Amino acid sequence: EAQVTQNPRYLITVTGKKLTVTCSQNMNHEYMSWYRQDPGLGLRQIYYSMNVEVTDKGDVPEGYKVSRKEKRNFPLILESPSPNQTSLYFCASSLGVMNTEAFFGQGTRLTVV
Amino acid sequence: KNQVEQSPQSLIILEGKNCTLQCNYTVSPFSNLRWYKQDTGRGPVSLTIMTFSENTKSNGRYTATLDADTKQSSLHITASQLSDSASYICVVSPRGGYNKLIFGAGTRLAVHP
């Protein structure tokens, strides 16, 4: 089954403790991205990657890092989480960069206390 | 600034009734406009994708329309079912934006028996 898989689904952590949210897709997609969703706001892009070893900042990249060492994986790293990073996070992938459908993971609900 | 605005914020209808959700956008020029369905706690799922030259696109009981002159789109749901209860998100992709997606905040639809 074609899918985007995120782990974990739920995470509670303390301020300053480094964490990684994994994202994997099995559709051989080139384009992957991370979004956060906060109440009353649309999804906002954190980082995106157009291919292996090619990543770039989205609209809200502060406090996040990503890497793309393999085509299928695109982990999101929070080096020193803060409470304002409490949010619902989604990973997405698509075949190309224009007019192609984006497939989203199930989401990771992160709480930083 | 809100480049994609949706109305209403929330809507309650009875099962079997029709409804129309609105999306106004200021993104220009744009490559495509999408509608997604997001069930509570799940990732968004694509319903329709329309390029700037298309006026309408259907997917089962869902019909999206686009008026590029007035920068408006609508999503019409026919013969609603309880499973239609979800948030519906309008998304615009700017032309030349490398698959960048600009999300509206969504309309939360509740279908009651």
Structural features, described:
The complex is a heterodimer of chains A (113) and B (113). Chain A has strands spanning 4-7, 10-13, 19-25, 31-37, 44-51, 54-57, 65-66, 76-78, 87-94, 103-104, 108-112. Chain A is an all-beta fold and 113 residues long. In chain A, strands 2, 4, 5, 6, 9, 10 and 11 form a seven-stranded mixed beta sheet that branches. Chain A has a four-stranded antiparallel beta sheet with strand order 1-3-8-7, with no helix packed on it. Chain B is mostly beta strands. Helix content of chain B is 0%, strand content 58%. Chain B has no helices and eleven strands. Chain B has strands at 4-7, 10-14, 19-25, 30-38, 45-51, 56-59, 62-67, 72-77, 86-94, 102-103, 107-112. Chain B starts with a strand and ends with a strand. The interface between A and B is medium-sized, with 29 and 22 residues.
Quick overview:
The complex is a heterodimer of chains A (113) and B (113). Chain A is an all-beta fold and 113 residues long. Chain A has strands at 4-7, 10-13, 19-25, 31-37, 44-51, 54-57, 65-66, 76-78, 87-94, 103-104, 108-112.
Rounded mean pLDDT score of chain B: 93
Biggest sheet details of chain A: 7 strands, mixed
Rounded mean pLDDT score of chain A:
94
Major sheet size, sense and barrel closure of chain B: 6 strands, mixed
* Secondary-structure-derived class of chain A: mainly beta
Return Rg of chain B in Å. Answer: 13 Å
Helix content of chain B: under 10%
Beta-sheet strand percentage of chain A?
Answer: over 45%
Strand content of chain B: over 45%
The number of strands of chain B is: 11
Give the overall shape of chain A.
globular
Taken from the alpha-carbon principal axes, the silhouette of chain B is: globular
Number of helices of chain A: 0
